[in-house]
Design a protein that fits this description.
The structure is a single chain. With 128 residues, the protein is mainly α. The protein has two domains: 15-83, MYOD Basic-Helix-Loop-Helix Domain, subunit B, CATH 4.10.280; 85-127, no CATH class. It has helices spanning 16-45, 47-53, 61-110, 117-127. The protein is elongated. The protein starts with 15 loop residues before the first helix and ends with a helix.
């Protein structure tokens, strides 16, 4: 087979519309490659989860995405259940600690008979 030559027009002879037509398939291929790469990464990250759901079966891209969404929902619910009580108790602990600190500061500042300008400002700030 004889080598064929493809006539390529220089960039300066192409109109913007023609440049876009040439560029579109390349950009689309890059986009599909990114999607496929990400799906492959998901498949590797969630390998154990796939074995639980569909052992010994070839996974389609849609299957990978569905299992990933299911896994993320499950993790989110688990996190909410474990973080919920901790979050409430940590808020309570913070308020209790803050109140205790405020009481100690008032007590310390009230021990001094002579009040300086700074002490007065600090007390009024705490009362706000």
């Amino acid at each position: 087979m004889a080598p064929s030559t493809v006539f390529m027009e220089p960039d300066n002879l192409l109109t913007p519309k023609e440049k876009n037509k040439l560029r579109k398939p390349v950009v689309e291929k890059m986009r599909r490659d990114r999607i496929n790469s990400s799906i492959e990464q998901l498949k590797l990250l969630l390998e154990k989860e796939f074995q639980r759901h569909q052992p010994n079966s070839k996974l389609e891209k849609a299957d990978v995405l569905e299992v990933a969404v299911s896994y993320l929902k499950q993790q989110s619910q688990l996190q909410m259940r474990t973080a919920g009580p901790f979050h409430k108790s940590s808020q309570f602990d913070f308020r209790e600690g803050y109140s205790r600190c405020l009481q100690e500061a008032f007590h310390f500042l009230s021990l001094h008979k002579v009040r300086t300008d700074t002490q007065t400002k600090l007390l009024s700030h705490f009362q706000k």
